[in-house]
């Protein structure tokens, strides 16, 4: 049984990890420690648009030390044991309870989630360089027609209409994770912006289309960040490398480890707003356990997705329909949910 004096370690400070940290600290837990290899939080909803609107991007990032209510420790967790996280620098963070919210990585597309910029100034430099590369390019090739690829194509075509943008996708429709109507709308809206879409196409670096492009973006291959589990908890990883959890986010075969967001195998969409919902639910359960109450199973959410296609178009997938209703699309278009995210985290 845990109480508010328990040492709680949160591994990963993305949408899920930062929210759990804030909610537990606000509830009066006295030893909440967030560890992340980066020194800053980033509202990644806004990252792609920041290629054309740098000021928006700057508003989407804050150092953890300016708003985290618990303790923040910058470090890279390499191995998780039953009671400690071992860091790359040789240090160790002990815990009574751990929440693994290590997210996912896009090694081929660091614009979306940086692999090397651990300090805020480094991230600004990285994105400035990316914008310069984009400004200098005339022909753009985007590989992968998932949500990231579609949004990126829309942002570039909208902000830089003089550039030639080609989106290549390996199957017969973009956005295969969404409903067919969403795919049709994405095709129509991207085409209206001048984006050329090539379906059922897989390119190698030796392909002429690849060689002739001034700039190539690979928007494929998201991977859960779970390598820390392999030494002591390899059996708790599924075939996709995600952590096996129950309906209360408890890691299979344990009582004091929890996992959520992109790194966990909870069967719902791997989206930021859902990670936030999971974090809120887990924090409530931990608070309940500290008060000797029974935790509740998490109620899965249907796939809802709001996809902007440039600054003036987009669509929303709801459980019962896909719509281009401006009132709904503009909910995200206004500021890419930056203010909403800072409110969720009690950050200014």
UniProtKB/TrEMBL annotation:
Positions of the FAD/NAD(P)-binding domain: 7-268
Pfam families linked: Pyr_redox_2
InterPro entries hit by this protein: FAD/NAD-bd_sf, FAD/NAD-binding_dom
Native organism taxonomy: Bacteria, Pseudomonadati, Pseudomonadota, Gammaproteobacteria, Oceanospirillales
This protein's name: FAD/NAD(P)-binding domain-containing protein
Keywords associated with the record: FAD, Flavoprotein, Oxidoreductase
One MF annotation (Gene Ontology) recorded for this entry: electron-transferring-flavoprotein dehydrogenase activity
Organism: Marinomonas hwangdonensis
PANTHER family in the record: APOPTOSIS-INDUCING FACTOR 1 (PTHR43735), FERROPTOSIS SUPPRESSOR PROTEIN 1 (PTHR43735:SF3)
